Amino acid sequence: MAGFGHGPAHPVEVEDPRVASRNARQGMRLFLFYLAFYAGFVGLNAFAPKQMESTPLFGVNLAILYGCGLIVAAMILALIYCWQCRSDQTLPPAKS
Amino acid sequence: MLPDPSSLSIVVFLIFVGVTLALSFYFAAKTKSASGYFAAGGQIHWFVNGIAFAGDYLSAASFLGICGMIAFYGYDGFLYSIGFLAGWVVALFVVAEPLKRLGKYTFADALNSQFQSRGITLAAGISTLVVSVFYLIPQMVGAGSLIKPLLGFSHETGVVLVGVIVVMIVATAGMVSTTYVQFIKGALLVFFSGILTILILQRGLKVDDRPEANQPQTITTLADGTKLVNGLPQGRGAGQGDLRPVGHITKLPGGVKETGPLGPFQYLATLQASEIVLWKSTPQKNADGSKTITYTPQPKPGNEVLRPGNSPTFKGLQTESTYSKLNFISLMLALFCGTASLPHILIRYYTVKDQAAARLSTVVGIGTIGCFYVLTLFMGLGAMTTGTLDLTDSNMAAPMLAKSFGELLFAIISAIAFTTVLGTVSGLIVAASGAVVHDLLGSVLQLGLTDEQKVRVGKLAAVVVGVIAIFLGIGFKELNAGFLVGWAFSVAASANLPALAMLLFWKGTTKQGITVAIFAGMISSLGWILVSAEAFEKVYGYAGKDAELMALVPFSQPGIVTIPLGFIVLIVVSLLTRKAAVGGSA
Questions:
Q1: How far apart are the C-alpha atoms of B106 and B91, rounded to whole Å?
Q2: Domain extent for B356
Q3: CATH number where B174 lies
Q4: How many domains does chain B have?
Q5: What is the pLDDT of residues B521-535, one digit of tens each?
Q6: In B, which residues are within 8 Å of A82 by CB distance?
Q7: Gap between the Cα atoms of B297 and B214, Å rounded
Q8: What is the pTM of this model?
Q9: Does B373 sit within 8 Å of A2, measured CB to CB?
């Protein structure tokens, strides 16, 4: 450790190509889901900016709700990804 | 407005700088190897790295620029917050683990892991330098803006001071000291932004119906540089005048004068139904060679302030202009793709032990950065309605808002903002010096440097890059920080992302494809920017209409054209060179 002595950072991950490819697949799914959500936001701002003035919840407009929703969604998806990639998750046996 | 430094601000500033430098000298003795200097030996804890990601990423543009843009134009600044945060999704889901697996010190390592090509290293090294320099300019400009009200020094002195301190941080212990400076800065920035937001909500909203609050103001710069404010020489003495701080509400819903404490949703909903004063600036050249800027109050309904399209950057969103819409989409695309292409962010993945730590640190980074960006909305809106805005400097909105809560909070927020610049500039200089030593000297020129020589040359490169940054910070003094960062994202996304993504997901990628795609993305995005209307207006000094006539491209943000171009070039060149290779061996 470079300093502050807070012990080992994390157990070293054993490189299993199947784990790497599973993580990549799960990452790609979550990425595509978020991309669609983000594209919706950009599209609404660009082509229907009036829609962003509507106030669907708490008297707050869609522009702020959607923007904060994107920020919160990134945090939730990041946690889901971490949970999906946890090292104790069992993988199907490798084909011989 | 004239600066008003206090001794408390100076003391807090000196404490922050002292702690930062002490930390660097403490780690200096422990950093001897190239791995330690450029990648902190891969031994940084994932949690520390996650907060350091926030410290590295939340630059002057994020803290000063976004808060200022929201305070001056409303919702539009928040669009940058959303784009900057969304980019981390690409970093976590697509780039983090493979990059950690493939690389060692620099971005070029990862790209070159299966090819060992000098062409790739040269292209990636140059791209790292170009993006880092683009990103350095707004940080140094932000430092100059901050030092004036904080310490009363000139812009130039502020830039030199930052340059010297940063070079000392980087040249002592490289990535180790940089990491801990970023860690401390990231934690303090989010914590104190949270405190500031709580105070804003506790104070609530208040109507300012004094007649003088709605008076226009003028500032005239005479040919000899003397400044007149509202016709009087600028100063605080008798017969002198200074711009008064602005930003207020003229009507609250229900005709009340004051709301008292509000919850976050109530705060936003109340603003939505209020009338808020934004300020329009109109520059004018006078016959005697002097220049006058007139600031005029523009009362606006809250629902218009909180919708997109109020700022000069995004004003086209409320029109039918196709090019304005393309410009917006292009910027949002660059922000989304740019984060995972910024060399100073990517090299942070080498400072942790393994892929799991890379993943976890990104999650911590997203949490920290996400919280901060939500807070920027409240800080910006708080500054917009508290009567603390300096009409001549949007970058000072957040520190001046803090000042309305007391001198101590102003001193702390300003010192944190200064450390914000230090943290980001340190990361950029480490990335640039790594590219010089490891990529250009070590791999391209094959100088065969020993580990010790790499560290020594790395420190020398840090000094050189620091000196360049100082000159750029002084030379580009007038440019807006957030605007320049948008350009850096466009260049990074166009040059680096196609190469990185295709290397990871397409087996047909060849070394020639990667090399040509990096150069194509970098040159096309840089070229597009340099002949755009924004460059003609803000860099070459043409007036609005003239700048539009001079522009050679239909809109200013290049990403929507140059990012796909990078992918197309890579695919075409790879297909051509693969065929040649197959043909040659047959």
A1: 16
A2: 7-23+35-203+319-478
A3: 1.20.1730.10
A4: 1
A5: 999 999 999 899 888
A6: 359-360, 363
A7: 6
A8: 0.87
A9: no
